[in-house]
Amino acid sequence: MHNLTIDGERLWQTIMETSAFGAIAGGGIGRLTLSEADRNVRDWLWEQCEAIGCSVKVDTVGNMFALRPGTNGNALPIAMGSHLDTQPTGGKFDGILGVLAGLEVLRTLHDAGYEAEHPLMLVNWTNEEGARFAPAMLGSGVHAGVFDQTFADSRVDADGVSFGEAIDAIGYRGKAPLGETRFAAMFELHIEQGPLLERDTTDIGIVTGVQAMRWYDLAITGREAHAGSTPMDMRCDALAYAAAVILGAQEIARRFKGMATTGQLSIASPSRNVIPGTVTLSLDMRHPTDDGLDQMEAEVAKLVWSQCQERARTDVVWNSPAVHFDAGCLATVRQAVKRIGASARDIVSGAGHDAVYVSRVAPTAMIFIPCREGLSHNPAESAEKGHCVLGAQALLESVLSHKVSRGPQQGATETP
Ligand SMILES: [Zn+2]
């Protein structure tokens, strides 16, 4: 057993200090991936890790890996990590907390001269946000083999600059081969980005997984006609069909305890005195389980048919299956939370995180702390110092107490 306590004041100061890299009005951060501000915070992180005896490696998509050796030279490292990039108008905590809390854990061990059996590793994943280069979670996705180098390099931002050009411009195309750096486990601390923990006045969310998500494009065709001379019962109003589908999908989501959102909608050749002839809309549906999402999809398909018959076309444009984090890692987090006396509840993440892809190649779990009003991707994003400290302490307990299973590991890295 150990007696190590993280330095909450230092953690908080570090969060506040590093928010100067890419600071924007309103106390937020605009630190797009592979920007100058991103380079500066990366350089800073590198220095801080070396200052406490860690060696830093960077892979060919800019993922940073800081290693603190353990007493068992043969053991794979136990990793902590998240991302330092932000949305254009992001806050001080999303992703950042997970990296800086990991740094605080390493600093605490260094100050105490503590020797852990397992090497520990702090990871800063490149382009989690997907705000400059789509898709999101690109660095962790490449690491897990979901995307390849060519795909990553060819992503282009709104100014026509490619990921490959941007990473070379800031000098962060490292030499470590993709996926070569392996972990025995990874723990990601993150703000919840939702309102549940705050509502329940709970300190810690033990994140059991990430909900299944599916995106659809719908095109509904009616018949354009005069708004004044076409009787109400003789219309084929594509927007009215769309409205019924949108509200019906929301009702289905409530019934199945899932989520349904239409965030994009457009009327082709809109005119105020023409009955809409063609409407296209997006539909984002989510559910904690793949089965639940399948059932919601079937219900929505029935609804679309009942409203529109053959007038509607539905395409799936993105599908992300539900993620269930590793039982061993979750047990470790549960124990850790108990040991530090924090209140906790299980929670399913509504948003994607680097841990989603990492969980494909290493046992993984996440730890959430509350954030004010569940607000994120906003300069006003805020978390309480006390919660950040508890989260970091839970992270420390987790990485030091995690028992690596000797059997075949979940998310086996090699496919024969
Ligand atoms: Zn994040």
Could you outline the blueprint of secondary structure elements for this entry?
Layout: H1 8-18, H2 36-51, E1 55-58, E2 64-68, E3 78-82, H3 96-112, E4 120-124, H4 138-143, H5 149-154, H6 163-169, E5 185-191, H7 196-199, E6 204-210, E7 212-221, E8 225-226, H8 238-256, E9 259-261, E10 265-267, E11 274-275, E12 278-287, H9 290-308, E13 312-320, E14 323-324, H10 327-340, E15 344-349, H11 354-358, E16 364-369, H12 385-401
Helix pairs in contact: 1-3, 3-12, 8-9, 10-12
Give me some keywords for this one:
416 residues, alpha+beta, Aminopeptidase, Alpha-Beta Plaits, 2 domains, 9-stranded mixed sheet, 5-stranded antiparallel sheet, 12 helices, 16 strands, elongated, disordered C terminus, binds zinc ion
Main sheet? 9 strands, mixed
Which ligands accompany this protein? zinc ion
Helical amount among residues, as a percent range? 25-40%
Q: How confident overall, as mean pLDDT?
A: 95
Using the 3D structure, state the CATH architecture of the largest domain: 3-Layer(aba) Sandwich
How many H/I helical runs?
12
The coarse overall form would be: elongated
CATH superfamily of the largest domain: Zn peptidases
What's the short version?
The chain has 416 residues and is α+β, with helices and mostly antiparallel strands.
Describe the structure.
With 416 residues, the protein is an alpha+beta fold. The protein folds into two domains: 8-210 and 323-401, Zn peptidases (Aminopeptidase), CATH 3.40.630.10; 212-320, Alpha-Beta Plaits, CATH 3.30.70.360. Helix content is 34%, strand content 21%. The protein has twelve helices and 16 strands. It has helices spanning 8-18, 36-51, 96-112, 138-143, 149-154, 163-169, 196-199, 238-256, 290-308, 327-340, 354-358, 385-401; strands spanning 55-58, 64-68, 78-82, 120-124, 185-191, 204-210, 212-221, 225-226, 259-261, 265-267, 274-275, 278-287, 312-320, 323-324, 344-349, 364-369. The strands form three sheets. Strands 1, 2, 3, 4, 5, 6, 14, 15 and 16 form a nine-stranded mixed beta sheet that branches. Strands 7, 9, 10, 12 and 13 form a five-stranded antiparallel beta sheet that branches. Strands 8-11 form a two-stranded antiparallel sheet. A hairpin with a 5-residue loop joins strand 1 (55-58) and strand 2 (64-68). Helix 1 packs across helix 3 (96-112). The longest helix has 19 residues, at 238-256. The chain is elongated and about 85 Å long. Mean pLDDT is 95; it is low at 407-416. The protein binds zinc ion.
